Amino acid sequence: MSEAERSEQEGEVREAGIPPSTSPTNEGGIFCRDEHDLPWSTYEGADAADAGMTAIRYKALSYGRRDVPSMTYIEYAPGCTDPVHKHDTGEVFVVIEGEIWLDDARNGPGSVIYIAPDTDYAVRAGTEGARYFRIVT
Question: How many domains does the chain contain in total?
């Protein structure tokens, strides 16, 4: 995620009333956050509606932290597809529930996906939707 994208996401999170992460980092450099401790946020506005993004919810797990990668828990409604896009950073997806499709490849629970920087892609959820973790590298 670029710095501009991170700032945009943090602005959306602030508007949703989510406090910055206060989870401590211990001397060993461990960061922990339980997705159950955070409320869901959604993409808002006409642009989000036009792109079908209102069917996507997320929890910014590492919001406010500069010492850990950006980590987000994401939920797609059944059949939701986001627009083709790319990021200037790499991304790792870990599918927890449902399935996500990238091109013609199905990725179900337990799947791990790496998307290299500057790669065009679009995520499409399966018929039951999908939940996955997204970690920016």
Answer: 1
Closest CA to 112 of 79, 134, 88, 82: 134
Look up the domain containing 127 and give its range.
3-136
Residue 73 and residue 99 in contact, taking contact as beta carbons nearer than 8 Å: no
Distance of CA 122 to CAs 13, 47, 105, Å? 23, 17, 12
| Model-wide pTM > 0.70 | yes
Q: What is the domain-level CATH number for residue 59?
A: 2.60.120.10
Alpha carbons 96 and 121: distance in angstroms, whole number:
20
Query: What is the per-residue pLDDT across 80-135, written as a single tens digit (0 to 9) for each?
Result: 998 899 999 999 999 999 999 999 999 999 999 999 999 999 999 999 999 999 99
22: three-class secondary structure by DSSP: coil
